[in-house]
Amino acid sequence: MASLVPLPRPAHLRHQSAAHSSHSHSHDPNDDPSQHPPLVSPLLQPLSPDEVATITLVGAEDSRHWSPARKWLTTSVISLMGFVSPLGSSILVPGSKYLDFDFDLASRVVAILPVSFFVLGLGVGPFILAPISELKGRLPVYTSTSLLFIIFNLASSFSQTYVTLNILRFLAGAAGSAGPSLGAGSIGDMFEPRERGRAQAIYGLGPLLGPVLGNVIGGFIAQGDRDWRWLLFTLTIMSLGVFVAIVLFLKETYAPILLRKKRERAIADRLELIRQQQQQQQQQRSTTHVQQAEPPRRPSPSQRLVQWAKRLYPSAEAKAKIKQAQSRPFRLLFTNPICAIFSLYLGFCYGIVFLFLTQHPLLFQERDADEDLPTDAELPTYSWTLGVSGLSYLGLGLGFLASALTNVLVQDNLYRRLVQTDGKICKLLLKDADEIERIMAARKGQQQQHQLDDQQGQGQHPSKDVDLEKQKSIEPVAPGPDSHTAAPAPAVVTEKTVTGTATGTGDATPAESCGSDGGGDRDRNDDGDDDDGADDEDAVRPMPKQDENDPAATVASWGVVPDPAATSSKLTPTVSAEGDDAIKAKATGTADKTGPASAAAAATVAATGPPGSLATAAAATSSPTPKKGRPEYRLPLCFVGMLILPCGLFCFGWSAESEAHWLVPLLGSFLVGYATILCFQTILVYLVDAFVPYSASATACAVLVRSLLAAIFPLLGEVMLEGIGYGWTSSLLAFVALAGAPVPVVLFRYGERIRTRHKFAG
């Protein structure tokens, strides 16, 4: 055998091998691996839109997932804002006569102009602040407006002219409108719908009690210092405390802004990493003389200022959103009759409240000897001191509290009952909602039974020749692949089998008419008749004699379309006398426990529907859909308030005119406060429910109208009181209030139709 001679290696391989061998055995100091540039890592790329879209709020980053302590602390601060701003509207009322003395005003009507201008600012401010809060967030609006509120109040206290005072009061009202207008949105950001009740109730007390306590506090301060400026100093100190609470405890709650800021931080962090990576690579490659792009530099302070100024200037999209948001309330007001009518009545109620707040001193407070009095008629007065006269507002305030408590206890429960009764106002509303649901289900089952009796009684008697294709039928349900039992035979549905009774009268009890403990336990003969031998023509017909081996013929003779699976299996149809519940149990393999209404509904579907409708009915009744409410179910309490309001006005006006005991006009003011807030809160809830998703625009429309009327009513009320007195002034307002009472009744009956006809498209 020849020996194997190794072939010589190629020259270039021998050269590489020698070089490798010499390199492995020699240590050249100039060949240090540390002197070679390291491998360049791939550059990071900015976040793509898809990557940015995957960033979401996690855990406590979302205000909905805050701890209860954090939520209630935020609610307390927001409620404090909603209390102090309305308090500033009436705190100047007790010092109106000192304004007259300092500025030499012509009449007391002119002296209360600062109150009207402040309330007008409260109504105009939300149209500017609400769109900004949706674009920039709630917290910047709260912080900036609270600071402006302090500045304008402090400037008002140093006013040297009456015109300057009114202008600054208007600006202060606009700045202070953030708390009363945006607070409800912040609470909605934090709490789930089922949790908002208590938080909204606490927040809602601020705008109601603020004006009342403002008069009380202002009365004692003005009595001691006899100077209107200290009233504004007190308001400034209170607003300063609110500003400190906002800075220390308040955080952003608006989820879209929180998400946008998180994504902006992620984008900025990635850009910063890219900048650092480029700097590091530039340092590493400086010895290799590789051309490298200069890394981006951090913006200088002047550049940051320019960027910040550009952010303040709204973009074209932001301008379009602001324009649309600001115009929508006006379009709602002038195009939608429901929004217009309720906004006017809401403004009427709010105007009456401010009329009482500004005119109570005229009735209860003592007058100075040199004070101007009406020339046409001498108005009565109870001559209380300035501090004690402020307590007269407690009647109005207690009415507010009682009305708010009524809404909390009654509104939701009444709404649930009306949902169960389908909007029918009857004695059932006095029962529990669950009991009402059971009663209404039984009634519905009886009604469906009577309808089924009428349908089955026409054209299905054995003696009548009826087209088989038009007869009501039930298709048997074939067994599923996992079924362990054979498919049940098709059951003939008559007015007796669906009700489970043996004899057919329409006066069956709910239990009998719906097949629960009804005919299923009754003894029957083999021919299907009752034991008592009653020969009712509507009783279950006996099974006709057919060939047992021909199920199709048997089914066809009964007007039942045979199922192919049942025919192939030669299933024999049987007549069930156990009622509709038993039929469904056989068809679905499960016991029916959905109640009377579900049983009757399934029977109706089975009797009138296409083949296979029994299975569909059984599936539908296994999970009954809950009843849906309507916004009009909120209106019964509004109608009650509209009836109480005229009574309170009559009581207050004529008791003051006749100089009755002071408790009687206070009782009238209690009724007025109770009725106005009852209407006020109910109408607001109705507007929110009826104009989804434009609820904010509907409420903004109501805020504008109510602020305008609240600014006008004190001025007109003063003239009316001097002209016709307390009695006829209150009577005129009572007649106007009584004229609006039919509105809730009409809307309760036809509101859904009107809303559909005048649907707002945004």
Brief descriptors of the model:
762 residues; mainly alpha; Growth Hormone, Chain: A; 28 helices; 63% helix; 0% strand; flat; disordered N terminus
What does this protein structure show overall?
It is a multi-pass membrane protein. Residues 445-461, 500-509 have a biased composition (Low complexity). Residues 74-757 form the Major facilitator superfamily (MFS) profile domain. Residues 25-34 have a biased composition (Basic and acidic residues). This protein is mostly helical. It folds into three domains: 45-277, MFS general substrate transporter like domains (Growth Hormone, Chain: A); 321-422 and 629-762, Growth Hormone, Chain: A; 432-459 and 468-478 and 490-504 and 546-626, no CATH class. Helix content is 63%, strand content 0%. It starts with 10 loop residues before the first helix and ends in a 5-residue tail after the last helix. Residues 1-5, 15-27, 373-377 and 461-623 have low confidence and may be disordered.
